[in-house]
């Protein structure tokens, strides 16, 4: 008998008790479950949540973005950062993508 392939909708992930290493962020707006704490699914969920938060800061709706597009947005923000506090904030956002 063939086993059915599991999807994110078939599994459970509790954002209140679990964290994704390297990311300090609120849970995504839609809490998609993650199969056995799969790193790829966790990365997708964290990316979607970060994209929602970053776009909300500039009053943009949440589109379907590629991760490269989002990193480009962060780098543009870095280039336009005026104060040291702005540069630190943008640097911390960018470092969240590089840490794992």
How would you portray this structure in words?
It is a single chain. With 100 residues, the protein is mostly helical. It has one domain (8-98). Helix content is 48%, strand content 0%. The protein has three helices and no strands. The chain has helices at 39-57, 67-80, 84-98. α2 (67-80) packs antiparallel against α3. It is globular. The termini are far apart.
Key terms:
single chain, 100 residues, mainly alpha, 48% helix, globular
At a glance:
The protein is an all-alpha fold and 100 residues long.
Topology at a glance:
Layout: H1 39-57, H2 67-80, H3 84-98
Coarse structural class = mainly alpha
Portion in beta strands: under 5%
Number of domains: 1
* Strand elements, count: 0
How far apart lie the N and C ends?
Answer: 37 Å
Main beta sheet strand tally, sense and closure = none
Task: Give the overall form.
Answer: globular
How would you spell out the order of helices and strands? HHH
Rg, Å, rounded: 16 Å
Question: What's the number of helices?
Answer: 3
Q: What is the mean pLDDT?
A: 60
Helix content: 40-55%
Segments where pLDDT lies below 50 for 5+ residues? 13-31
